[in-house]
Amino acid sequence: MNVKTCLRPLASLKLTIVCLTCAMVLVFVGTLDQVHIGIFEAQNRYFKSLFLYAPVPGTPFSLPWFPGGYLVGSVLLANLIAAHVARFKFAWKKAGILILHAGLILLLVGQLCTSLFQVESQLRLDEGQAKTYSESPYFDELAIVDKGLPDRDRVISVPDSMLRPGREIPLPGEGLKLVVNDFYPNSALVSPTRLPSPSYPHLTLGPMAVAVPLPKTYKQDERNVATTAVTLVDHGRPVGSWSLSTGFPQPVSLKIGQEPFQMTLQPQRYYRPFSIELLKFRHDRYAGTDIARNFSSQIRLVDNGRRENRESVIYMNHPLRYAGLSFYQAGFDNNDHTTVLQVVQNPSWLVPYISCGLLVAGLLLQFGMHLFNFSRKQVAR
Amino acid sequence: MRLLPFILRRGGRLWCLASTVARASAPALTIAALAPMTGCDRRSVQVYEVPKEPGLNRTLMAGMVPVPASVPITWTKPAGWEEQAPGEMRQGSFLAHGPDNATADVSVTAFPGAAGGLESNLNRWRGQVGLPPLSGDELQQAARPITADRVPGLLVDYAAPDGSKEPSRILGAVFQTPEQAWFVKMTGPRAWLEAQQETFTAFVQSLRFRPAAPEPEGDGTNADVNLAGRPKSTNER
Hints:
The complex is a heterodimer. The radius of gyration of chain A is 27 Å and the shape is globular. In chain A, strand 13 and strand 14 (about 260-285) form a beta hairpin. Chain A is of the alpha+beta class. In chain A, strands 4, 5, 13, 14, 15 and 16 form a six-stranded antiparallel β-sheet that branches. A four-stranded antiparallel β-sheet of chain A has the order 3-19-18-17, with no helix packed on it. In chain A, helix 3 (about 70-85) packs antiparallel against helix 4 (about 95-115) and helix 4 (about 95-115) packs antiparallel against helix 5. Helix content of chain A is about 30%, strand content about 40%. By secondary structure, chain B is α+β, with helices and mostly antiparallel strands. In chain B, the strands form three sheets. Chain B has a seven-stranded antiparallel β-sheet with strand order 5-6-7-11-10-9-8, sandwiched between helices. A two-stranded antiparallel ribbon of chain B has the order 1-2. Chain B starts with a strand and ends with a strand. Chain B is built from four helices and 13 strands. At the A-B interface, strand 2, helix 3, strand 3, strand 4 and strand 5 of A face strand 1, helix 1, strand 3, helix 3 and strand 9 of B. Strand 18 of chain A pairs antiparallel with strand 13 of chain B.
C-alpha cells in the first residue's frame, strides 16, 4: 500500500462537501449568535475553536456537538493537500488549477497563522499625550511595578485569566506570591449606600465605591470591568490585601521590604520601543450638517533606536505601518480631543495578498488557456 | 473501528480522553493531540522592564502649555471660561463670565487622603449657601453619581433658599482617588449656574487623574491611567 492509496480516504470529495457544509453552518450560526455575544466572542466560540460546546445539565462539563472553525479548516486543508498528493499528475493543461489550489492552501494557512499570531490592541491618546504602549480591548492584567530602579520600572504582569479565586500564583522574585481572594470578570462600581444589604456580595474599593459582580458583557460598545481582591505574600508573611478594579485604575503604593512598589489592575499593555504622540485630532463634518466627513489623527512617531522622528497623518483606510504594526483610525472621544487607534500586529498580513494574487493568476491561466484553445479551434474551422 | 476522542470542557480547560479500544486513525489522532492545545492558556506571568514616563520625548506644539509630570490632573477647558493662575490651594482656577456681569468662580482642589470626609465637606458647601446640614445617607441620596476618567464620584447642586440676601448656588463634584480627595466647585448666581450646568458637567467628565508622584523623579509606568473608556467608533455615522 503506497502513500497515495493511504491518502485516498482523506482526499475524498465527499469530505470536501461535508467540510464546506459545516463551514457554511458555522458562518450562519456564528453570524446569528454574533448579535448576542459580539464579534470577539463569536470568533472565539465558532471559528477559533476545535468544537462548539453545549453544557451538560447538572455538571460543570460541556460536550462538543459540532466541529469548530479550526477543525473544519484543518480537515479541509488536509483534504486539499491529500487530493493533490493522491491525484497529482503534472501537466501544462492543469497548471492553472494547480496555481489556483496553491492559492487556496496559502489562504487557509494564512488565515490559521492570522488567528494564532495576530494581536490586536488599542492606543488611546489625548492631544499632546505620548505613549509607548497600547492596551488590549479584551484582556486585563494585574501589574506589580517595582519603582525602585533609577531609570526603568520592572513590571510583573499577571494575566486576568490566572486570577481565579483561591489560586496562589508564585511571582518571579524570591519568596513572593500572589493569593487571589476573589475575582469578578465584570462588575459595576456603585456607592456603598446603594448596596441592597451589607451582606450583598461586593468588594470595597474606597470610601465612595464598592464593586458588585455583574454577568460578563459581550456588547461591542462595552468593556468588562474586572475587579479582584488579592493578598501579596513575601516569604510567608502577608504584605497586605487590596481590592483593585479596572474601572478604578489608580495604582496602590506599597513596600516590599524597603523597595517601593505599585500595583494596579489595568487593561493588558503591549509596550513598544517607540512612542507615538497625538498632535491633533480632526473630526471634519460636511458643511452645514453634523455628518462626519473625515476622521484623522496627526501623530509624531519617535524611535530613538532607529533614529526616527517624524510626523504622520492616520485617517480612514490610510493606516500607519511601522515596525510590523498597523495603526488604524478607530474611534474618538472627549469632545474630539482624544483619538483611539486600533493597533494590529499580524506577521502574516501579506499572505492573503499573495494567495489572492495566486488565485487570480491561476484563474487567468486556466481560462486563458481554454480561450486560447477555443479560438485556435475556431480559426482552424 | 475508529479512534473516538472524548472531549469535555470544564472552565477554560479541555479534557481529552481517547478510547483505547478503537483502532487509531491518523486524522482522529491529530484531533486528539490538538485538542488539549486549545485548552491551554497561552498567557502566563511575564516580567519586563519599561522606561519611566519622563524618558518619553514629548514635543510641544506652539501654544501648548507644558504640563510637568508632578501635576496630577488634566482637563479640557470649556470654551468661554477664562483660566486663572492656580493658587496655593487650587490646582485649577477659572472664571465663567455671563450676561449682566454675572461671574462664576470655578476651582479644582485636591487634599491628601479623604480630606476630612465626604459628609463634612458637602455640609460645608451647604452651609456656604445657607442650607442646613444633612446626614451622610441624605447627602448621598441628594447627589448624582458621575464618573470622570472612570473614577466614580458625586455631583451636587446646592442653591440658596428663596429669600436669601445674596442668591447664590454651588455646583460641585467630589472624587476620591486612593491618594487624594478631589473637589471641583463652581460658585455664582443662580440663573447663570443654571445655564452653566451642562458645561460644568462636561468639564468634570473631562478630568484625567494621575496619581501624585510618590518620588521626586516623577511618575512612572502606572502614572498614566487614562483608561480606554467607551469611545465613539469612527464607523458610527
